[in-house]
Amino acid sequence: MADTLASPETAQALHLPSRAVSSTRRKSWPKKLVVTVAVAVAAVILNMPLIGALLTSVKPAADIAQGALSFPFLPTLTHFVDVLSASELPMALINSVLISLGSVVLTLLLTYPAAFAIARLSFGGSRFLQFVSSLRLMPAIFFVIPLYLLFGELGMLDTIYGMIIVNTFVQLTLALLILVAAFRDLPREIEEAAALDGCGILRVLTVISAPMLAPSIVAASLLTFLFTWSEYLFATVLTTSDATPVTVAAAKYAGSFELAWGEVSAVAVLSVLPPIILCVLLQKYLVSGLTAGAIKG
């Protein structure tokens, strides 16, 4: 209550003197400055490995031996040119994009109607969602050998669509939990009113519910993309060359006898660049989507 009365907007609405408003602003800016500096320092510390890799990737080979944080140096893009022109990294990046986007599309096609059925039609009973959620607690290594044998029989080893199916299977649970929470947070009366106006279930899902659940859909899509992009275990076992993602291709640069730090750092920067860009662009949707249903009584 005290904070509300002390805010500049409230003071102006109550016709308080401008001197009181300016005094409140003078008292608040040091606190904001301290918080901003603390967040900036924490961000730099937490991202120090990425910063070191970025600096190393643009250093000449002769300056890398002096340390990742050594200055000054003349920036160069030689390492990026080398890994993009004389390696399998470009194809691995394309594979990762195809696998990640395919997994997002297939995951949404499966989980969006399933979340509606669970939240609105009580599909599977009260324990069904808990059972599905428990599958994510199982270690991934538990599924590797059965999937390898199954894919070998079906001719799906080292294929893009095979990796899309695997990653969809792995990320299905998380997306389902997010969308079920979003449907439960959405007032049922909106869908009932649409049904009274003659909308079928398909129209309700696509025209009525989807726009209102957009933050949660984006959050589920973004998390599916990120986890699929960074998946390593299944990609190592189920791919060899044609469908190798960037995580497996990047690991090949760490040789047993010699480690080219410039090329390794360039590969690391290129491999994390798409997820970082997506997170920055879709951050607000991710936060609002993940908090759906968190405060509903």
TrEMBL record:
Its main location: membrane. It holds the Pfam family BPD_transp_1. Residues 93-282 form the ABC transmembrane type-1 domain. The chain crosses the membrane at residues 33-55, 92-116, 128-148, 160-183, 204-229, 264-282. It is found in: Cell membrane. Keywords: Cell membrane, Membrane, Transmembrane, Transmembrane helix, Transport. Signal peptide: none annotated. It comes from the Bacteria. PROSITE patterns: ABC_TM1. Belongs to the binding-protein-dependent transport system permease family. This is Carbohydrate ABC transporter permease. Gene3D superfamilies: MetI-like. It is a multi-pass membrane protein.
